Amino acid sequence: MAALVFLPIEVSDAGWRSDIRKSAKHVTSRKPATLARHGASPRHRTVKPARPGPAALKPSALERVGTMCDRSKFRIVLDVGHTAASEGATSARNVAEFVFNLRLAQRVEEKLKSEGFAETRLLVTEGKAKPSLVRRVAAANDMNANLLLSIHHDSVPDALLENWEFEGKKSHFSDRFSGYSVFVSHGNPDFRTSLAFAELVGRELKAQGLQYARQYTQAIMGRYRHPLLNQETGVYSYDELVVLRTTRMPAVLLEAGSIINRDEELKMGSPERQDIISSAVAAAVKEFCQPFLGPP
After folding, report:
1. How many separate helices (H) and strands (E) can be counted in the chain?
2. 124-137 pLDDT, tens per residue?
3. Is residue 247 situated within a structural domain?
4. How far apart are alpha carbons 265 and 199 in whole angstroms?
5. Is 231 a domain residue?
6. CATH number for the domain including 275?
7. How far, in Å, CA of 73 to CA of 76, rounded?
């Protein structure tokens, strides 16, 4: 589950690392992402309401929120959730969430680049969470990206965990919940576009036969309880999530599936499921990256 804190950044491009180091000099400012300036990059044709609720955004309106896009120049940042030092959740079989996040993000990166999105970039962080939160966000904001997707894998609150033993080691599991979920923040400067992309991701995952996690509306989730914005696609709001709220580009967080659920953990570790998810994300990006064809 995604927490509020993320973390020093490495990027899969040397030039970006240089930009990050420069940006960190100018910055003064636990688990479960606005168009930036990009030279001649495409402009969104959107209206930015202050804090629209789900009822304010009709499906037809969401479909019209997109960008005029040259795939070869469209820059999407894939944020790998957590770090090797702060690994996030632990799976039912004692595998760190960070391992799942990195593996899936790399697969998504490969898929997007094969579809012509050559400027796709992978963000991999180092170190402990809190000290590097501001640096992570500052670096993302200086990357002049068109879109940010933060990739995570889900768990449950500690109170819902059960004990079991795997390969001679004590572990925890919860088979009660499964599925993906997609999060956006009303605090993002381009919430409308963030929501539009989140809807596309949810629709594509659903089209692949996947189901979304429904537990986030339940009281048993405690502080991880969040409003469901679309009961068809599994898009939730998580307004306080820093990586979604303070980045200056449309931003979405994907919980790809539950690794604390013993059956789903095995699926999430399989190349087949990773291909399904990466194909769904690529299809969503392709649909998002379409010319605006006219007025409503």
Report:
1. 8, 10
2. 877 787 766 677 78
3. yes
4. 25
5. yes
6. 3.40.630.40
7. 10
pLDDT tens digits for range 164-187: 999 999 999 999 999 999 999 999
State the residue range of the domain holding 133.
9-288
Domains in the chain, number: 1
- pLDDT above 90 for 15: no
At residue 140, the pLDDT reads: 79
Non-local (6+) Cβ contacts of 107 within 8 A are 274, 275, 277, 278
Rounded-to-integer distance, Cα 34 and Cα 41, Å: 13
In a domain? residue 293: no
Average predicted confidence (pLDDT) for the chain:
80
Dihedral angle sign, alpha carbons of residues 54, 56, 60, 65: negative
Cα torsion 178, 279, 251, 190: sign: negative
pLDDT in the model for residue 33: 34
What pLDDT, on the 0 to 100 scale, is given for residue 17?
31
Residues 6+ apart with CB under 8 A from 223: none
pTM: 0.79
Instruction: Quote the CA–CA distance of 48 and 18 in Å, as a whole number.
Output: 32
**Domain assignment of residue 296, yes or no:** no
d(CA 243, CA 89): 18
Residue with tokens 């690994």: 87
